[in-house]
Amino acid sequence: MTATATQTYTVIGLTLDVDRTELLIAAVVAGTVADQVELLATSEEDFTRWAEEFNAPDPDTAADLAYAFCRDFGYAEEDTAGEYLQRVLAEAGIEATSGAHPGSGCSWIAVPTPDGGEVLLTGQDRHEAEVDYPLTDHAGWLACAYDEDGVEFTVLYDSHTPDLSADTAAAVAAVAASVTTD
User: What digits encode the pLDDT tens for the residues 111-165?
Assistant: First the structure.
């Protein structure tokens, strides 16, 4: 059996903001140029410009992989931002729970740390101290690591980025770095 040679293709397109599982491809370019593609602001309110790299034997297969990627890693319509965050944490192998202060109206995602403390993640701006809000209302994540007494804390991640997918990936990376033990 002969192995098919692959190369890296950059797929460029638009995702529908309704659930971000629908991808409209504008181009498939040979090479690793996703970081060189300038994603301009779109005039349409229902789309987000998108670029991602895929290893494939040909441009059509790269496009198929991009469609599958968006379909598999898109948002479920019933998700809140917190549910999406918990799903991405779980996919990264990070155990997390949601919690709230009774009567306070505050909600967060909690991740235990090896030293007995925890990392708390909440939304930003008008969703400060809350994670159960609609995906389209995302304005950023705040992640703080608290000591075992819940008093001293360190800010691990503080963003004001409305791109839920990229922002969540960055927040999860920051949490993963803080809870990993050597």
Answer: 999 888 999 999 998 888 888 888 878 899 999 999 888 788 899 999 998 888 7
The C-alpha angle with vertex 124 and arms to 151 and 46, in degrees rounded to 5, equals 160
Q: What is the DSSP letter of 125?
A: G
Could you tell me which of 147, 167, 146 has the C-alpha nearest to residue 157?
167
Global pTM?
0.58
Residues 6+ apart with CB under 8 A from 53: 8, 9, 10, 11, 32, 34
User: Two tokens at 38?
Assistant: 């300038």
- What whole-number distance in Å separates Cα of residue 82 and Cα of residue 137? 12
Q: What count of other Cβ atoms lies within 10 Å of the Cβ of residue 131?
A: 24
